[in-house]
Design goal:
- By secondary structure, this protein is an alpha+beta fold.
- It has helices at 13-21, 59-65, 76-92, 114-132, 144-153, 167-171, 184-192, 198-202, 206-213, 217-224, 254-274, 307-320, 343-348, and strands spanning 2-10, 30-33, 41-44, 70-72, 97-101, 104-112, 136-141, 159-161, 241-251, 277-288, 293-304, 328-340.
- Among the domains are: 168-224, 5' to 3' exonuclease, C-terminal subdomain (DNA polymerase, domain 1), CATH 1.10.150.20; 241-348, Dna Ligase, domain 1.
- Strands 5-6-1-7-8 form a 5-stranded mixed beta sheet. A 4-stranded antiparallel beta sheet has the order 9-12-10-11.
- Helix 3 packs antiparallel against helix 4 and helix 9 crosses helix 10 (217-224).
């Protein structure tokens, strides 16, 4: 017997909710988007996708690509309620649940047979559909990454299990970008070596992998070969401290945003002081008026708990976010890469 993980993800969540609650939308290309001038598509229905409408695409472009697009405003309150229903179903399994977003989670199915693991996932899909009338796709595999790739691959309304021993063959033809941690920059570097699929990456000799990935090469090769032993983590250990502010009215004025960052930096510095720790990573979180969320972070040369240094780093992140006066609904600052002890003493050495 092996240990299995299932990944669940509601199909086109926001759009599916809109169609469910307004049957006149059925079969039509639907996009969920805010109403601001800079609104972006949050979710596109499967009918909109053949037109090239994708999430994160500016709404005006989506309208050009698909003139019949029906645009529906997001209803976050409703999404949160449905999410609670779905997670209650997950929690009732008594298994570890690692939520990734409102409509997405890993469940550790534990030691069992492959058939039993797939049957359990199928049962959960049915339960969610009965409770919410939404379809959820699921992937089942020995590790988290493959379970997630499997559920992405079988969307919508699918279930795909990758049996033990089949992992490498399943991954081999997929583009390298599907691997966790391989971003666009690395994809470009890999393409120089003629590598575009996961299978090609898995077959690279050790020396070349070291050259490309440094000390990380071993993990990359494991992932590319389908070896992934990371456990489902129900509640991630708090390795960061954050504070955030949701505004009653969207804020466009940068001076106000800076003032909020200053207050947050002071608050975080005090918390770090109390806990006698220091942070080397400073990040900000921005939720725009159209509900899209964006984050920026920066790493300092050495850990700090100085309010001014935290503030300067946060300002740097804000400038890099290039908001250009877009309305901001929420602004937060986060410190991470925490180290214990007094940062002044460590910097002496
Ligand atoms: Mg989803």
């Amino acid at each position: 017997m092996n240990s299995y993980v299932a990944h669940f993800d509601v199909d086109a969540f926001y759009a599916s909710v809109a169609v469910r609650d307004d049957p006149s939308l059925r079969g039509k290309p639907v996009a969920i988007a805010g109403s601001s001038r800079r609104a972006v598509v949050l979710t596109a229905s499967y009918e909109a996708r053949p037109f090239g409408v994708r999430s994160a695409m500016p709404l005006y472009k989506a309208r050009v690509a698909c003139p019949d697009l029906v645009v529906v405003r997001p209803q976050m309150q409703k999404y949160r309620e449905i999410s609670r229903e779905i997670f209650a179903i997950f929690e009732r399994t008594g298994r570890p649940v690692e939520g990734l977003s409102l409509d997405e989670a890993f469940i550790g199915l534990g030691e069992t047979t492959f058939e039993a693991a797939c049957a359990r996932a199928a049962e959960l899909r049915r339960e969610i559909f009965d409770a919410t009338h939404l379809t959820v796709s699921a992937g089942v595999a020995g590790g988290k990454m493959i379970a997630k790739i499997a559920s992405d691959t079988c969307k919508p309304d699918g279930l795909l299990g990758i049996a033990p021993g089949d992992e490498a063959a399943f991954l081999a033809p997929l583009p390298v970008g599907r691997l966790w941690g391989i971003g666009p920059k690395m994809q470009t570097r890999l393409s120089v070596y003629g590598i575009s699929t996961i299978g090609e990456l898995a077959a690279l000799e050790e020396e070349r992998l070291r050259e490309l990935f440094g000390s990380w090469w071993h993990d990359v090769r494991d992932l590319a070969r389908g070896v992934d032993r990371r456990p489902v983590e129900p509640e991630r250990e708090t390795k960061s401290i954050s504070t955030e502010e949701t505004f009653e009215y969207d804020v466009r004025d940068e001076r106000r945003l800076l003032e909020i960052l200053r207050v947050q930096a002071r608050e975080l510095a005090e918390t770090l002081e109390r806990e006698r720790s220091a942070a080397q990573t400073i990040g900000i979180k921005i939720k725009r008026g159209d509900f899209t969320v964006l984050g920026r972070q920066t790493h300092l040369a050495e850990p700090t708990r100085d309010a001014r240094r935290i503030f300067r780093a946060a300002v740097y992140c804000l400038r890099r976010a290039a908001l250009d006066g877009a309305p901001v609904r929420l602004l937060g600052t986060r410190v991470a890469s925490l180290v214990d002890g007094d940062p002044l003493q460590t910097s002496l050495f």
